[in-house]
Predict the 3D structure of the following.
Amino acid sequence: MSNLIPRDEEDQQRRATRYGQLVAQYRPRPPIGRNLALAFVVGGSICFIGQIFYNLFLELALSPREAAAPTLAVMILLGALATGLGIYDELAQIGGAGAAIPISGFSNTVTAAAMDYKREGFILGMGAKMFIIAGPVLVYGIITGFTIALIRVFLLGM
Amino acid sequence: MEKKQGDRTYMFANPPALIGAKSVVGPKEAAGPVGQYFDLKIDDPLFGETTAEKAERRFLIEATNATLEGANLAKDQIDFFLAGDLLNQIVSASFTARELRLPFLGLYGACSTMAEGGMLAGFLIDGGFAQNVLVGVSSHYQTAERQFRYPIELNIKHKLSAQYTVTGAGAFLYAKGGDGPYLKGVTVGKVVDYKIKDPSDMGAAMAPAAADTILQHFEDTGREPDYYDLIFTGDLGKVGMQLVNALLEQCGTRLGSNYQDGGVMIFGGDGAFGAGGSGCACSAVITAGYILRELAAGRLKRVLLVGTGALHSPLTWQQGESIPGIAHGIVLER
């Protein structure tokens, strides 16, 4: 029998450990410096576009607080549009987290899922699965937000 | 003559002939390094259909029809249609069988299905149960992404070790007697799991199974690696290929430049496609398009094809299980 078939459970574990070390030698290493720089450029550019709209809304005599909501809405719209046009996933290949983390990236997760699952119908497909990627972000975002707000209320009062 | 040799290699008494084969690929495969060899190149990955799943079936139907036409055989001369794909319940294969109306046996060997199908075709024909056996496999980038990974347009940066599923289909017609390269023998794979858990590193998950089957084949037959002009693994990609070499060297076997991998051949190993191609269609279109042409031209005489498959599901992965691999070897000779 070939030398590569484990004899028993113990042998299997030993081989797995040794093989893990071998794989680590051959696994390609991502160019971290380059990835960081590209993430900065892509993420920065998205934020720059956001800043332009923010300033525009300030010009329209909105207060800084009021200007935030329409800015986010515009960035969500742009993210969805770029997803529909098939650009956003390409952007993510270049910018990685720089494309994923801004709110346009969040918009992409919802739009991409909606586009995919539309083929299974509007109710059981799109309606049910639109938040398959964004869902955990919402769940844990809300839990975290609520917890932090509670801590704040206890420490600083209403 | 005893057909079984050693532990799990079988040599056919009357080797079936591979009398026809066709490859159908999408645009990215056609634009790749071996694009010129494919029989049918389709510009639209959706093949004019409304869903990717329908498109994948269309690729498989085109491949099977083209193969039957090319071999000048009517459907009623086919005794068995053996087919498989990557989708849940192997719908591409069974829905294609619905169109073909042939006696159908569905297979699942993940990306090793082409080799598994060839092996079973050999058993059926040499065993005297069939005259002609049609084997078909397919995969599609979009259907595989949807089932195994994420929505297609999602902002996920692919890892360098990840592989890109080949869009296409291959069909093969094995016959008792006839002209073409002969299926001389097969080595049946065992499921080997060296506890790799990362589905974006499938080359590493499948490499131990591939190395095991290659090694077992040499042990069972008494052959050396240089017996073959080409030793071909289906879709290990660049990382998996290096690991096969490393594992075999640890066992004292060295493969030379006659060792190639379908995943690396179809997309290259360092480009935008990560470590290379994958999917049932990867090994199938390269075999049908490239290897059989080279065999016909006499530039290759003896080929050991090793189909490699990762036998996990998205569910087992999410439940923290490792990825078992399998590899089946088939020998084609002029």
Notes: The longest helix of chain A spans residues 32-59. The mean pLDDT of chain A is 94.
